[in-house]
Design a protein that fits this description.
By secondary structure, this protein is of the alpha/beta class. The chain is 45% helix and 17% strand. The longest helix has 22 residues.
Amino acid sequence: MRYLITGGTGFIGAHLTRLLNQEGKEVVTYNRDPRREILEYLIGKEQLSSVRIIRGDITDLPHLIRTAQEFNITTIVHLAAMLSRASAENPSLAVRVNCDGTANVFETARILRLEKVVYASSNTVFGPPEKYEEEYISNDAPHYPSTVYGACKSLNERLAEYYFSAYGVDSVGLRFPVVYGVGHREGTASSILTEELLVKPALGKPGRVPYSGSEVLNWLYVEDAARGVIMASRKAGTKTRAFNMGGEICSVSTAAEYVKKLIPEADLTLLPRRIEFTGKFESTQMRDEIGYQAQWTLERGIKQVIDSVQKLNR
């Protein structure tokens, strides 16, 4: 399999590139503004030479097709996107990047008859928890997105269904929850949470966490996220077209306790904030159809992030 990863030098993309590189797979990353430094840190300068890093815009369909043709790509993993904050600030551009860009990926797969597309969706497609009667939102629950970003992701799931039924483009959407780890990008709730809860305490700085503590989130360590993408890319013809992706469901206050256990002197403050989404999602369908289950506990993942941050800053 030859992989083209849009957003391959982004947060999840860089960790995915590392795992595929370790397997000896051919990987091409496709980014508007490639971040070579994160790949150098994760892979090493010597191994980085085996990864093709292409500068390209996801809204440029001809360039995307040419790139996939040039490198004989069989599988596209589509992770490139405008994130939550940027999407809210510029909705029209967000639609072009997040929706038109995703349509370009499906169109490339259709034209070139690629084997598989795996694309990033989000649990923000579901919207506020008060929209649902059940405690755990099911995989096939209706969508009520309350943000531009969530609305774009919901539309992308409909596009995926259309390209599958009309043209046979085999794709899987993964609804990422709160993904945390080293190398996060700014502009998401996950990045703010990682920075304030984990990175700043690891550096001896005060952390101001934008949750009161009682909120329950679905925490997914970035390496589990990347591993789930790989498993989905190798599973042909799933019955379900998009999956809730499971991590560890845990309160913010419990996560803070894990941090304090590792750094007793940590200066952490949990700030009141109205939560706009629930962290409780039913994720057994991805386990049943793809065989995926998270391997990293939240406590282990938090330790890994803190250790990595401290090592990088010695």
